[in-house]
Amino acid sequence: MELRRLGNSDLEVPLLALGTGTFGGSGPIFAAWGQTDVVEARRFIDICLEAGCNFYDTADAYSGGAAEQILGEALGNRRQKALIATKVGLPTGAEPAGYGLGEKRLTQAVEASLRRLRTDYIDLLQLHALDASVPPEDLLRTLRSLVDSGKVRHVGASNYPAWQLMKALSLADQGKGPRFVSHQVYYSLIGRDHETDLMPLGLDQNVGTLVWSPLGWGRLVRRLQHGELPPKDSRQSHDQSIAPHVEQALLERVLACLEGIAEEVGRSIPQVALNWLRMRPGISSVIIGARTESQLRDNLAAAEWSLTAEQIEMLDLASAVRKPYPQSLYAQGPFAMMNPPVI
After folding, report:
1. What whole-number distance in Å separates Cα of residue 292 and Cα of residue 288?
2. What is the mean pLDDT of residues 130-138?
3. Any idea what the Cα angle at residue 23 is, between residues 22 and 29, rounded to 5°?
4. Nearest Cα to Cα of residue 144 among 178, 104, 103, 110
5. Can you give the CATH number for the domain in which 79 is found?
């Protein structure tokens, strides 16, 4: 599998990474995502390593830490073959001490993740979301201590607004702490907001992009027939209140295009959607998930082939939406000639 440098770090990550949101499957959200146990997780890792995928993304908030624990057990003595990325900051309990990125909470969260993962270092520690209550200088100082201690190799962000990400990068460049080497974002054919500010920022600042939910919360798996409901055990049937919003007309347009190309190339709809993503500018790795071995093998196969330029253009057009102000002015409006597009 193709390897790509993650931002300005020394990490080379595979084109596809395995997400562990299905590991453990407990709680109101993750119980609907999957019920992968240690035995199944070990088999998934076997399949991934065989395909050249040694990058695993998890979080302390996934099933109350169960995902990290299962990943650690499933890796076992293969830890040195793996790159582990975990995320901290989201609630892991009802008490204030169970969430946030203050010094004490962040330090304790990393220690707990290390225990669950059965490792003495984390390759990539990601801040799961912005904690606006913590001054960025204080946050970077804590991150520096974690890196200096050897418990964390590199740091990244996730779900950050562009201006906050740039602020953190600027402070790091002033010597206030380690620089974020990556940003994990939602990005799919039915969710291209990433392209507005975050993609140009990442390209300019050499921050690698890791993509979560590349199949749009499970919506880009297959085209439902008129009046058909998604399977009760599918991700589409649960937690729609926290799922990224998508207009039905856009979804139908994109699925129709995906269906046509999938038939043309003899591949699955998810493979086509993943293939389009991996060819976008600035993408370091696309995080895939799976409930079953067959799903995992199908997703991994997206790295084995490439869409044609014509097929990419078709998907670009099918998924295009009007950019917000002021980007709309530079994309098609009166200022377009003054700024060549980034993508």
Report:
1. 12
2. 97
3. 50
4. 178
5. 3.20.20.100
Catalytic site includes residue 325? no
Q: Which of 129, 146, 283, 309 has its CA nearest to residue 210?
A: 283
* CB neighbourhood size of 163 (10 A): 10
User: CA 44 from chain center: how many Å?
Assistant: 18
Q: Is residue 343 part of a domain?
A: no
The tens digit of pLDDT for each residue in 218-235 reads: 999 975 554 444 555 555
Give the chain's length: 343
41-91 tens-digit pLDDT? 999 999 999 999 999 999 999 988 999 999 999 999 999 999 999 999 998
Whether residue 69 is contained in a domain is answered as yes
**Annotated catalytic residue, options 62, 99, 160, 187:** 62
In a domain, 326, yes or no: yes
Assigned domain for 253 exists: yes
- pTM of the full structure: 0.92
Split into its structural domains, the chain has a count of 1
DSSP 310: H
Question: Given the structure tokens 């969430």, which residue do they identify?
Answer: 99
State the residue range of the domain holding 160. Answer: 3-338
